Amino acid sequence: MMNKLFLILLLYSAISCKKEELKSEVILKKEIRNSYVIPEGKSIRIDTTLLTSFNDKTLFDFYKSTEYETVWQSDEKRKIILEELLKSDEEGLNPEDYKVKKLLEFEKKSATLDTIDLAKYDVLLTSSLEKYISNLTNGILNPRKLYKNWDLKENYIDLNETVTHLLKSDSLASKIEQLKPGHIVYKRLKKALKLIQSFPKYNFKNLKITGRISPNDTNPSIIDIKKRLIYWKDLKPKDTLTPVYEEETVMALKRFQNRHGLAPDEIIRETTIALLNFSKEQRIHQIIVNLERWKWYPKEMGKEYVIINIPDYRLTLVKDKDTLRTHRVIVGRAKRKTPILSSKLTQVVFNPTWTVPPTILREDVIPAILKSKSYLTTSNIKIYDSDGRIVSPYEWQLSQAKSYRYVQTPGTFNSLGMVKIIFPNRFSVYLHDTNHRDYFDKIDRSLSSGCVRVDNPLELTEYLLNDPVNWNFEKITTTLQSEKTKFVKIKKDVSFHLLYWTAWSENDKLIFRDDIYNLDVDLYKKLRN
Q: Which one of the listed residues 285, 327, 432, 497 is annotated catalytic?
């Protein structure tokens, strides 16, 4: 009997331990914020009216967790935080936003401050640090409030929990460094900012030319063009400058054009002059807004991911931080912008049909039908009414036009080409082939209605399906020749990111792209408002 009782008690004890272990693992965010923080060193009591004056609930909750005691008694930790705030401009941020001047005044007198000012210093330091952490991890502005077609999840961070971890850390500087975006593009943007800030001040006047300048031409504007190319380090400095567009300047111009995404064609046109007229300050602003954008983007892109830079018209596939392949792309024009989002690649459609979306129907298809109903036949578009019945082009009526469904049948003439790659999103956009492959040779490839057309999509598709037996290139070709629509699931875990950035650096060279959606100038104004 005693043995049985002992076993029951032992079993009950084991079950109770498991329940207790499970409970201890589930830590609510509210509990984290209110968890007790033990200040190091001799702390000072903080009057709650001081905290109330900041009108910041997060800050108030933090000091509630310290039982209203100061926490930054360590000279070393204060120094690290102040140094970090002072160099916040390296992240594209403004040190003035973190009350650095006032904090430095407090620090200079820290040994002689009375208890009231020590409390003020402590609270202001925490407030500035939390604001800095928030700006580092989420940016200053919220893109979801700025743009209708930006669908990015917020990089949530618990500020009080983070500050508590920093407070307890023996490696405060490295922990703060880990909060910064770690993607290579962000690091290259920081490098770009450092590079351009090393350029001297200048007061160049805007260049103007009429017509075009070809190699070996003599033109008075060439001297000023050479000065600009020397300034941007595309042309080596010279003792004397002539108005002749000679070979050395041709090569320098090609380097300049290449850095700005233009075709390096030797000819000086208005487009090149417009880029030469960008000032140092304008380029600094451009880099700063791109640093802000990269704070909005996902901190973890995925082990394997496809990333598209819209202004660069380029798709890149990355695995384990190595670039495996790149493809040229065509993106939405300014009136029909490609959205910014993150998703997963889920499905491939061979020989896709194309259902005409509302905007294209309203702005393109209906006007084309009104000109000639033969448009529907030549475009291989079938019309369906609400009952799924096929409507003859000759039965088509303008009054009913928007109630019909317009579907283009599969084939080489199809607007989506031979293949479509799907990723879940609320904008109904996707990657696809095109029946206008000559468009990939254009420099300005903002030509689509929002979806992204991919050059050589079958090579990308074969890689994504990752099935050498069932979906090798030969099997894909056979499927396409059948002209029957086929859906195939992508089994690989591949993240997908449609993003927008117009500046970075490569090998100590500044790289810029045309701001095709005109977002940079407005964003900078909002950042520095």
A: 432
In 3D space, the residue among 11, 3, 16, 62 whose CA is nearest the CA of residue 35 turns out to be: 62
CA distances from 386 to 265, 352, 357, 383 (A): 53, 22, 16, 10
Taking the C-alpha atoms of residue 11 and residue 425, their distance in angstroms, rounded to an integer, is: 50
Please tell me the pTM assigned to this model.
0.89
Instruction: Enumerate domains of the chain plus CATH numbers.
Output: 30-180 (no CATH), 303-503 (2.40.440.10)
> Does residue 153 have a pLDDT over 60?
yes
- Angle, nearest 10°, between helix axes 115-138 and 280-296? 90
Q: Residue 55, by phi and psi: left (phi above 0), alpha (psi -120 to 50) or beta?
A: left
Which DSSP string do the residues of 6-19 spell out, in sequence order? Answer: HHHHHHHHHHHHHH
327 part of the active site = no
Q: Is 17 a catalytic residue?
A: no
User: In the structure, what pLDDT confidence band is assigned to residue 34 with cuts at 50, 70 and 90?
Assistant: very low
Alpha helix segments (H runs only) across 389-468: 457-465
Q: What is the pLDDT of residue 455?
A: 97
The secondary structure of the chain in percent helix, strand, coil, rounded to multiples of 5, reads: 45, 15, 40
Assign 365 to helix, strand or coil.
helix
The Cα 159–Cα 174 span in angstroms is 17
pLDDT at 109 over 90: yes
Q: Is the pLDDT of residue 229 over 50?
A: yes
Round to whole Å and give the CA distance between 100 and 103.
Answer: 5
Pairing of strands 390-391, 354-355: unpaired
Please state, in angstroms and as integers, the Cα–Cα distance from residue 430 to each residue in 57, 99, 265, 419, 425, following that order. 42, 45, 33, 11, 9
For residue 96, pLDDT over 60 is answered with: yes
pLDDT range class, residue 315, cuts 50, 70, 90: very high
Q: Does residue 170 sit in helix, strand or coil?
A: coil
Name residues whose C-beta falls within 8 Å of residue 378's C-beta, 6 or more positions apart in sequence: none
DSSP run (H or E) holding 391: strand 390-391
Question: Rounded mean pLDDT of the chain?
Answer: 91
